[in-house]
């Protein structure tokens, strides 16, 4: 278990680092100055966990109190400052790593909340928020509508399924630590398969009103 | 009192449902996908209460931990997905129900905070936030300046008067449960009368500098 | 010490008032109505402290529970409503007072967090947030990208140095109350000198990639 814990911590640092890169790159694209790049990296890497900790009352959040986590996020910001022209070429690897980060954040956010006694529903919600919250905050800080609400990609869906699965297994007293790895891998796999196959979430109006056979022509008012 | 509690809970679910509809509709208007519509409905129906609970330290907030409340908000999102072309025609009813939700949220937010021992000023502030916070978060998430700050309508004013009245009565030891109903109805009435009579909040510069008799021509710098 | 405490409280009210003015003016510029001006003044004067208190779990935050602080912020909003045409002419004084407010907020935010036992890193982070958070929230509420991320001015840098110094001295058991005054004055001085000399933060890509001697032509992707 000791080795596992070390492994999970290392994984978590990698996940924060990768998520923070996407914040740093968004800031570079918006021509932020170096302070802005570092802050966006921090928000994107650790913002989801900060929301989680504030919502479950575990203050101060680890996103501001853990030296290693803050160093991983700010370090990613510094790397973005120096290497951002090259990072664009790594787009494919970043997408895979980001999907892995999503799986890890969701499992870890949900279990942390359950361990603190927060019940299955709030734990699943903060688990999802841990996974997707950083990206939402990033988009709001650069003045854009959160991508996750409108791009129809299956990004939140694997997060919701993963967090729901963890909360359900826990409530049924069936949880053991290795299931976390399985669920995280499933979230990663679901995300990657959906990207690979080009699965998209239904537009509101199309998929739904179609089932009732009306409004098929004009679905947006 | 038991019957009253059940009645209040039912009322609260209706209030959350109605408030969530406005979030869902805003998301449809912005062409969000289905996940975005559900999230906006949740934020708009329960975001004010989540702000309240975070500010008074009652975590996890009921907006993520209560099955019935979350179901009411997400249910409104699903209804918006299916029925949004028809909801536009219900605009008038939605305005009345939204004013009722405002009254209920303000009274319930203020009293919850007072019951947790938070003092009259913070309780009035979180009472107002409970009423108007969801709409502010909704507007920020769809990338718009919060309507409530600029549309000059009397929406926050009834909320402030209602929350102030509750906090004052409570501080003077004059509170009893039926006053909550009276104040909620007064907030609803004030809101509807202001809409009916077309009352508007003064533009900064006009109403005010006029009283000092200057800057009557050009009021905005 | 009693006199000092009174002096600090008076200073804090002035700092909140000055910071709130900048929120009120931003709201007037965006043609918000009077309610919007008052809310923006409150958010800008007290939002940083509210973030601090939520992050360190000291709820309800003083930004909603202290009569004098709320009165100072809302009072600044009222003053903005009445006097905004004249306030533009005071720009120079406002900049100096705002730099003083920054120094005070940073020192007071960091020490408050340390006193509550939050450790040097989270305390420095919330100290910086206390100083700059109100302005970030102001910019988000008026629909703009936070100025502090992109204007290259040295505003966050003095805050970070100040908060880091306080946290380091505290951790080394070298802290005594008068150092707070020294650090606040240093933050103020650093900010003013940087404005006077026109110091700017490096653009990402220029200052950094130059040191590795590449990408000197096109730095933004």
UniProtKB/TrEMBL annotation, chains A, B, C:
Keyword Membrane: yes or no? Answer: yes
InterPro entries per the UniProt record, alphabetical: Gly_transporter
Cell compartments where the protein resides:
Cell membrane
One Pfam family of this chain: Gly_transporter
Q: How does it sit in the membrane?
A: Multi-pass membrane protein
Which of UniProt's keywords are assigned here?
Cell membrane, Membrane, Transmembrane, Transmembrane helix
Cellular component GO terms, alphabetical: plasma membrane
Which residue range or ranges hold the Glycine transporter domain? 10-84, 96-170
- Provide the protein name: Glycine transporter domain-containing protein
Whose protein is this, by species? Isoptericola dokdonensis DS-3
